[in-house]
Design brief:
The protein is of the alpha/beta class and 269 residues long. Helix content is 31%, strand content 26%. It has helices at residues 2-8, 32-41, 44-47, 60-66, 83-92, 146-160, 193-204, 223-230, 245-255, and strands at 14-19, 22-29, 50-54, 73-78, 97-100, 112-117, 120-125, 137-140, 167-171, 179-187, 212-215, 235-238, 258-261. The strands form 2 sheets. An 11-stranded mixed sheet has the order 5-4-3-1-2-10-9-11-12-13-8, sandwiched between helices. A two-stranded antiparallel sheet has the order 6-7. The longest helix has 15 residues, at 146-160. The two termini are 16 Å apart.
């Protein structure tokens, strides 16, 4: 569903790598090959043995990138596959699962999702709200550029697909031609938000400097933002709503870091 939402952004083909239900890499680019390459670059270590999904037909150049030496995927998913791409995938891995979805749609017929629990089912609304940066609040630091807001909107979709507590770090990647935005690193499923910040920073490495950090919920204390700012993050986006929001805003102002609040939080368990 999140890949379909990225595709609906109509900024080019999108791709993601999923491992244990979490995106460890995701990107939007000018071609399927560039999107796939950028998604794998998000976390090559975690991507090994994962699921690779594309929002557009998988063509031969993308298939060659997927099957490059050192890569291994259990499942490849796309709306359709070019005949040559199928031959490339099948000749590389005899046991790879190739799934054709047909056209991706972010809006499915069901507005709810269900999860099994002991003795019953948990029914909850699906998180399909499309976030728009003009509705966000510029809370601290320098005013964001148009390109920063565009990248942040895509990263917000990626962040909501991560297990809570979730932090996603990313931006456009000039080192990959045609890449308009990609995930540099993510921290997910942690018991506290500071740990998620630390993991995301570690995964992003040097790419964190000048990048954007998205949080799926507010920061209860400024300790998480401190971790992000020390790593060189230039823009922090979070829902806001903490009693101590002002402490985070003050920290960003002192550090010259842009802080935006969305007013909407996401929790994925």
């Amino acid at each position: 569903a999140q890949l379909a939402m990225l595709a609906d952004a109509d900024r080019g083909p999108a791709a993601c790598v999923v491992k244990h239900t979490n995106p460890c890499g995701a990107a939007i680019a000018s071609s399927v090959e560039a999107a796939v390459d950028s998604a794998i670059a998000g976390d090559p270590l975690a991507a090994f043995g994962g699921i690779l999904a594309s929002s557009a037909e998988l063509d031969a150049p993308a298939a060659r990138r997927i099957t490059r030496d050192g890569s291994f995927f259990e499942v490849v998913v796309a709306p359709s596959f070019a005949p040559e791409a199928l031959d490339i995938l099948r000749s590389r891995w005899t046991s790879v699962r190739i799934l054709r979805t047909g056209p991706l749609r972010a809006d499915t017929r069901s507005s709810v999702e269900m999860r099994s629990i002991a003795g019953g089912m948990l029914v909850q609304q699906r998180d399909t709200l499309v976030m728009q940066s003009p509705r966000w609040t510029h809370a601290a630091g320098p005013a964001p550029t148009a390109s920063t807001l565009e990248a942040a909107e895509a990263l917000e979709i990626i962040c909501r697909a991560l297990s809570s507590n979730a932090i996603a770090i990313g931006a456009a990647d000039p080192s990959i031609p045609g890449c308009s935005v990609r995930l540099f690193g993510a921290g997910a499923g942690q018991m506290d938000r500071v740990a998620s910040c630390r993991i995301a920073v570690e995964k992003a490495g040097a790419n964190a400097r000048g990048a954007i950090a998205l949080s799926d919920a507010f920061f209860p204390f400024p300790d998480g933002p401190e971790v992000l700012i020390r790593a060189g993050i230039a823009t922090i986006v979070h829902p806001g709503g903490s009693k101590r929001d002002q402490e985070t805003f003050d920290l960003c102002n002192r550090a010259g870091v842009t802080c935006l609040t969305t007013g909407v939080r996401h929790f994925r368990h």
